[in-house]
Description:
five-stranded antiparallel β-sheet, 282 residues, 24% helix, alpha+beta, 11 strands, 5 helices
Amino acid sequence: MRIRRVLSTTALLAGLAGAPALLGAAAFPALADSSPSASPSDDGSAPTEAGTSFRTATEIEQGEQATAGASTGDYLYWQFPADSGQQPTVKATVKLPEASKRASSETWQIDVYDGLRRRQACQYGAQTRTAGTDASSVELSCTLRTVRAWSETWANDPLPGTYYIRLTATGLGTADLGLPMSAQLQVDSEDIGGSAAVDGSLAKPLVPGIAVTSANSEEDGSDDSSDSKTATLSSLRPDTSGWWSDRWVWTGIGGVLAALAGIWGYSLTRGRGRPSRIPPGA
């Protein structure tokens, strides 16, 4: 009887021990999603200009390399979509005017705002840099915090929707204003996955014109998709159709480990059973 009980317990433990391997195979799609976004497109469709305000910000997709030519002192604006679980990184390269035409050093700064036009802090990166009079270019970067699916109203957490980028030079002298310059900008995201998941989600992403769209839909009693093309100011929307998250995998692995711990504890506390020297019914 003891040998049979040990064998059955061993078989059960072996079956449960194989479950994490199966769950690990299911985790591969989630791990594959954590790769950076696609490389810039080379079909000539990337934007070649920038807006001058929030309302005229040029729309770019993640992975595109946008370019723009302007004058020193101008404010350049772009906008891009970001979904929950993503950690966007904005990189900009500014090609400065000729050194012989510059009278002093230049300080360049890149700022990122969410759909509510709240300035988002950079988790790391060179958000502001000063270029000397002999420098030909300056590189800036800003990695935001992970975009959350839901947040408290008083918090300043990044939320799904449209994000604005502003690039400008600060502290310029009068002699340096108006000199020609050019900029290259690209946004890439890393998918953090289930480690950033929260219990909750926004009813709608924070995109320009979403309030107007919702108001028109309530008055007409129709769906948002019927008038989104005319009411929404931005055509960029984050993809919120996916439901899968590697949080499911880690939850399953935790359940299996808890079951193994319970079986192991039961085997320790159960004891060896009735001694052979004691007859049944004694």
